[in-house]
Write a structure and sequence with these properties.
Structural class: alpha/beta
Number of helices: 19
Number of strands: 26
Radius of gyration: 27 Å
Number of domains: 3
Distance between the termini: 29 Å
Largest sheet: 11 strands, mixed
CATH class of the largest domain: Alpha Beta
Strand order of the largest sheet: 4-5-6-7-12-13-9-14-11-8-10
Length: 676
């Protein structure tokens, strides 16, 4: 339950848990609307004897972000295949063809009781199980494979069955899934072999039912031919032997996020798309849905660098608050070992082999969603200035909707905190298919984007639990700045600019700490001035345009206040009509080349009786004396956004607490953005 609570940031509409009961084919299923605490209470009040020891070695739990069907006990996971619970499962993601599958299954007499897409998968498995003759019932992973083959969409599954007590099968495509491994002794090898089929091609699925050939299968009486895909190459996995070659007791922990397993083990392996893992009798076997797909025949067991203390709130009231205050350390971690402040050089090891290719490219295309998109927008200008390469920025969903032209001499940069955002992953595969060089900028080691890109940078911001991204934004921002600096290191004409930026990076952690010391001022402003407002405009231009968009997003996410980020240069083209004495306005006005133009925007707002709150530099004497000023240290223009975003992050946090909103669990949102 503790592990489940650590995953609440991925969804908290409802929660559920299932374990094997004490009797044969007994299933204990608990579901409750709300957070994990409500589930705990529900279990404690149940009739189950919690002091009794069951002979059970497997269970599964889920915390849900509702995508199909409202939060209710009926729609909670785990889902059952039938009233007896012959097959149960939990699921992250979305099944896009569930309606078609549901129609087929209803025609064959199967009943449904929920509004979810997930229930269809449970019923589908029972359908395939029932289809096999009694004398030819398959093993657990085979019947799961039959069902998974029919699915479209993004998913990660955990399956249990009363027919296979103590066994668990997991499968994934497009959603993250990892398996933690806990042993007393060191493992003999740090990888698990993928087991492939016999001589026949898996894609044919001969001797296995599917929705197209089911009738032919039902009429078959002969046993599968020798060497068919049911006969797998079974070899004892060397990974789970101790160094002396002897088997050893082992525990497995399956989760969508490493934060759930870190208190038990730091040894994990990440499953690839279309992997099906079967845990039975203390052994883990990994199978592929299809053969000959070019993926590695092993899955490496990695050691997590994450510490349990990193994902605990400690002295802070909320994860969002904690992560805002962690930014002096997180930006240092992003730069550590990569920036030599003495020689003023940047070295990103993950890009070294591809630097010349990137420098020769026709254009750089940034592709991201949400906050990650804003970090790309914040750094586009400096990329173009330092590299003289055209840069375009795409929202991943829109990029796919347009079937955007991508060429072999393009470089596509994919930015994602989790590395598992479905739209971004689909865009990545689209670009790979067109021969472009693909670069990943991610925070999660072992994520799909980090594995499937040609090269990349791990931003090393540390675990981000808060739904509203804060420290990941600043770390992505810095990682992209460092990339631009390194790409321009062969240009003498840009040397002075590079040195200026690197010196600015050196001073950045202390400057962030300085801004954070003014938190009381931001709190007072939120509670006493902005808390009563219904709408907020945030304006800036140049490098600060991204700050305005990101700040407005934060306020929308956690405060539920309408807020808009506006390019100040477009003020007179429509937005100025919104300005009056009652409209709340924040103007980002820092000392850069566009400072006079932003002053003009300030004059326009003031002329219409607006009273803007001004985010400005500490030494700015041109700010009207009757204005509320939020002052931040002066730094290099392209880095200024790293400081101006901090007041907006803190304002959004305090506005949420002033409204009594649960900051870490905003309504309708979750950290999981792994679905289209």
């Amino acid at each position: 339950m503790n592990a489940l609570a650590r995953l609440e940031y991925r969804g908290y509409d409802s929660a559920g848990l299932t374990v094997d009961g004490d009797l044969e084919k007994e299933v204990l299923l608990f579901k409750q609307v709300g957070k994990v605490a409500a589930l705990r209470k529900h279990i404690a009040e149940s009739s189950v004897d919690m002091d009794k020891t069951f002979v059970s070695h497997a269970g599964m739990a889920h915390t849900r972000w509702a995508t199909h069907g409202p939060p209710s006990p009926l729609n909670c996971h785990p889902h059952k295949s039938d009233p007896k619970g012959e097959f149960t499962l939990v699921h992250n993601g979305i099944i896009t063809n569930y309606r078609e599958l549901k129609v087929v299954l209803e025609k064959r007499g199967y009943k449904f009781e929920t509004d979810t897409d997930t229930e269809v998968v449970a019923v589908l498995i029972k359908y395939f199980w029932d289809t096999y003759p009694e004398n030819r019932k398959p093993d657990f992973h085979t019947v799961v494979r039959c069902a998974v083959k029919e699915l479209e969409g993004a998913f990660s599954f955990v399956f249990k069955s009363v027919y296979f007590p103590g066994e668990v099968v997991v499968a994934r495509r497009g959603s993250p899934l990892l398996i933690g491994v806990k042993t007393e002794k060191k493992l003999k090898v740090d990888s698990v072999d993928v087991q492939l089929g016999g001589q026949l091609d898996d894609d044919s699925y001969q001797n296995q039912p599917n929705l197209q050939n089911i009738h032919n299968f039902e009429n078959a009486t002969a046993a599968p031919a020798a060497g068919s895909i049911d006969k797998l190459i079974r070899s004892q996995s060397r990974a789970f032997l101790s160094e002396d070659g002897l088997p050893q007791p082992i525990e497995y922990f399956i989760a969508s996020d490493a934060s759930a397993v870190v208190e038990h083990t730091k040894r994990v392996l990440y499953l690839e798309d279309d992997d099906i893992a079967h845990i039975a009798e203390g052994e883990l076997h990994i199978h592929r849905l299809r053969r000959n797909d070019g993926l590695s025949s092993t899955r490496s067991i990695e050691t997590l660098e994450m510490e349990l203390a990193e994902i605990m709130k400690g002295q802070f009231d909320h994860f969002m608050q904690k992560e805002i205050y962690e930014q002096p350390e997180s930006v240092v971690n992003t730069m550590r070992g990569r920036v030599n402040f003495d020689t003023r050089q940047v070295k990103l090891g993950g890009l070294m082999a591809y630097l010349n290719v990137i420098r020769r490219c026709r254009r750089i295309v940034f592709i991201a969603c949400g906050t990650s998109y804003h970090s790309c927008l914040a750094t586009r200008a400096i990329f173009e200035e330092l590299t003289d390469i055209p840069v375009s920025i795409e929202l991943a969903s829109d990029f796919l909707d347009r079937n955007s032209p991508i060429f072999r001499d393009d470089v596509c940069v994919f930015v994602s905190q989790s590395g598992e955002t479905a739209d971004t992953i689909l865009a990545l595969r689209y670009c790979i298919g067109r021969g472009a060089l693909c670069v990943g900028i991610v925070n999660t080691v072992g994520s799909t984007i980090s594995r499937e890109t040609h090269c990349g940078v791990h931003i090393n911001a540390g675990p981000e639990i808060g739904v509203a991204s804060t420290k990941a934004y600043t770390s992505q921002y810095i990682a992209l700045i460092m990339m631009a600096v390194q790409l321009s290191e062969d240009r003498l004409s840009k040397m002075a600019r590079r040195h200026e930026i690197i010196d600015g990076l050196h001073a950045l952690p202390d400057q962030i700490r300085t801004v954070l010391t003014h938190d009381k001022q931001f709190q007072d402003l939120a509670y006493n001035v902005l808390a009563s407002e219904k709408s907020l405009l945030i304006m800036g231009r140049g490098y600060q345009h991204a700050t305005c968009l990101e700040g407005a997003l934060k306020i929308k996410e956690v405060c539920y206040m309408h807020s808009e980020g506006i390019l100040a240069g477009e003020l007179k083209h429509g937005p100025l009509a919104l300005i009056d004495e009652a409209m709340a306005v924040i103007l980002v006005m820092t000392k850069d080349s566009l400072y006079p133009k932003v002053q003009t925007a300030l004059s326009q707002v003031s002329a219409r009786n607006g009273h803007p709150i001004i985010i400005c530099n500490e030494d700015d004497t041109n700010v009207p004396s009757d204005s509320r000023a939020l002052r931040v240290p002066l730094t290099v223009d392209c880095l200024q956004g790293l400081l101006t975003i901090l007041p907006l992050q803190l304002l959004s946090y305090h506005l949420a607490t002033a409204a009594g909103v649960d900051v870490d669990f905003p309504r309708n949102l979750a950290k999981s953005v792994t679905v289209e």
